[in-house]
Specification:
This protein has five helices and no strands. It is mainly α. α2 packs across α5.
């Protein structure tokens, strides 16, 4: 496995003590880091679309989904699961599987948003945050065991 910037950071004097924990849990830690970044992208773009521009919550969620999914695919593929493909066909197959898994969790998220925002009138951003927590867990399982599974 190739050494990346996170491996190099863990060799810095102040962080060396954490290196054994990091090595043991690297995949989960990187997923949480990049998942957190995708979470911020998703929440921020949703809030801008829904709160600032008044776009319907379900449409705003799809806009935020597109941005977060594109970010997540490349970070998950390259950093978290370090999944390499050697042909264009293999890359597009992996991309299609990733999108398929994310569409499944988009349906879950849209249902949560519809029920708790559209029908019940709860706070839009608060529901989006709660829905994202559910989605992040589901996305990890789908990515690890289906899209980027080790052969």
């Amino acid at each position: 496995m190739r050494e990346d910037i996170f491996d190099k950071l863990m060799k810095l004097p102040g962080l060396r003590v954490l290196n054994p924990f990091y090595k043991k849990h690297k995949e989960v830690l990187l997923y949480l880091f990049f998942g957190g970044c995708a979470f911020v992208i998703s929440i921020a773009s949703y809030a801008v679309a829904n709160v600032t521009f008044g776009i319907n919550e379900l449409i705003a969620n799809i806009i935020s989904w597109v941005l977060a999914v594109l970010f997540a695919f490349f970070t998950n593929r390259g950093w978290v699961f370090q999944s390499e493909t050697h042909t264009a066909m293999a890359f597009w197959k992996q991309f299609a599987e990733f999108i398929g898994g994310r569409v499944a969790t988009l349906v879950v998220e849209e249902a949560i948003i519809f029920v708790f925002i559209t029908l019940m009138g709860l706070n839009s951003v608060a529901v989006k945050v709660a829905a994202q927590v559910v989605v992040i867990v589901l996305n990890y399982v789908i990515s690890k065991f289906w899209v980027f599974k080790k052969e």
